[in-house]
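$ ./design --mode recover --in tokens.txt
reading tokens...
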């Protein structure tokens, strides 16, 4: 069974269940975002972000105050290796980010089964999560009761679902209260960058053509002779034969005339102009030239994280938590948490400083410190060490009172 058929089977029965069409539905996009993505520079920027996003680890947790417990439930299990039968976790996350960046919106469908307990209670058991790429959508209210979304796919199929059944992630939020894109006209917003990409594309395409022309054209030869039409035709034919048979590029002729050299120089496009055009595109996607080339420092990667990765992590955590858990589960602290290791991108000196801090405060195990340097874990390394120069805040008062000779429970006289 193909991937499209697999997706269709997930929606079986949904159309009849939610057949009431949206009242005053708002169409979002038709063929969206396909123009600027012919640019390899744009695609390279998106691919760099998607590759980094694919390294995120997703866990289902319960947070109770400061205590965080990672749950070994179906959500954590799905994101451990394969969220769906067709994609690994890294492939799933990269695919989600590609769709979000190209179309400003991405929808994730969580497939689940209803499990009934002996006491009559029911809960959802999630079996897969699929990123969707519809050709067009419309969102609206069904008789003012529930928000619904109609999705039209490339094969002509169409499905209507409750909006709350989907995880919706957006990019370039804009003024629209429902969809992403930063464009109130409802289409993918590329107007702010299309001219820059066009200028960069023409610059790159024009250089080879101008260089080729400069190597071929050397001058203009003007023959000075009077002849009848038949002689001129014969001269032209002879001239063309010279051109066809010439191997050196030199043409011999007995016609009197004038040769005027033509000097065609390829255009000189400064590095400043090229960097400016590329910087405009880089700023939109939050990817610097250093990140694109892979030659970046820890500070540059930290800036890349804040401009290109962090917003997706926040959206993923909030949108998935809202969709995958019930209000009761929210109340007891169930959340989706994304873990992204920034330690791997630190310079060696920064890692050493962190290791020293961990040794002093006990914030990391010895094996976690080893992992920063790519050293294999060892049997006795799953322990934390801490300097005796530090004391728990709960013991500070007792320590100071003991040093002052005050016993526990005694009143303290403070002299004015």
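writing sequence...
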């Amino acid at each position: 069974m193909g991937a499209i058929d697999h997706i269709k089977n997930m929606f079986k029965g949904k159309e009849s269940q939610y057949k009431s069409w949206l009242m005053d539905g708002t169409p979002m996009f038709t063929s969206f975002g396909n123009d600027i993505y012919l640019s390899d520079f744009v695609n390279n920027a998106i691919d760099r972000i998607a590759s980094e996003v694919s390294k995120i680890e997703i866990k289902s947790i319960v947070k109770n105050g400061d205590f965080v417990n990672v749950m070994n439930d179906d959500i954590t299990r799905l994101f451990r290796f394969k969220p769906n039968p067709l994609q690994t976790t890294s492939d799933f996350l990269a695919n989600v980010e590609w769709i979000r960046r190209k179309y400003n919106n991405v929808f994730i469908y969580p497939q689940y089964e209803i499990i009934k307990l002996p006491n009559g209670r029911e809960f959802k058991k999630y079996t897969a999560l699929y990123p969707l790429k519809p050709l067009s959508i419309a969102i609206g209210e069904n008789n003012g009761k529930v928000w619904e979304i109609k999705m039209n796919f490339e094969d002509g199929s169409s499905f209507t679902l409750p909006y709350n059944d989907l995880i919706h992630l957006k990019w370039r939020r804009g003024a629209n209260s429902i969809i992403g894109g930063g464009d109130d006209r409802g289409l993918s917003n590329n107007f702010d960058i299309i001219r820059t990409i066009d200028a960069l594309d023409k610059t790159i395409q024009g250089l080879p053509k101008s260089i080729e022309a400069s190597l071929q054209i050397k001058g203009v030869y003007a023959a000075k002779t009077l002849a009848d039409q038949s002689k001129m035709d014969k001269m032209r034919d002879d001239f063309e034969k010279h051109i066809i048979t010439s191997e050196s590029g030199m043409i011999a002729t007995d016609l009197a005339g004038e040769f005027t050299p033509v000097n065609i120089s390829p255009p000189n496009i400064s590095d400043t102009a090229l960097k400016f055009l590329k910087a405009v595109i880089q700023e939109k996607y939050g990817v610097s030239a250093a990140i694109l080339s892979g030659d970046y420092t820890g500070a540059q990667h930290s800036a890349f994280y804040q401009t290109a990765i962090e917003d997706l992590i926040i959206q993923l955590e909030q949108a998935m938590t809202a969709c995958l858990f019930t209000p009761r589960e929210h109340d007891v602290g169930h959340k989706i948490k994304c873990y992204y290791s920034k330690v791997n991108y630190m310079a060696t000196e920064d890692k050493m400083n962190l290791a020293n801090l961990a040794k002093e405060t006990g914030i990391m195990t010895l094996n976690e410190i080893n992992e920063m340097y790519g050293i294999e874990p060892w049997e006795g390394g799953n322990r934390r060490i801490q300097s005796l120069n530090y004391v728990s805040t709960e013991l500070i008062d007792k320590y100071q009172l003991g040093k002052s000779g005050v016993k526990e429970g005694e009143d303290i006289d403070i002299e004015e």
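exit 0
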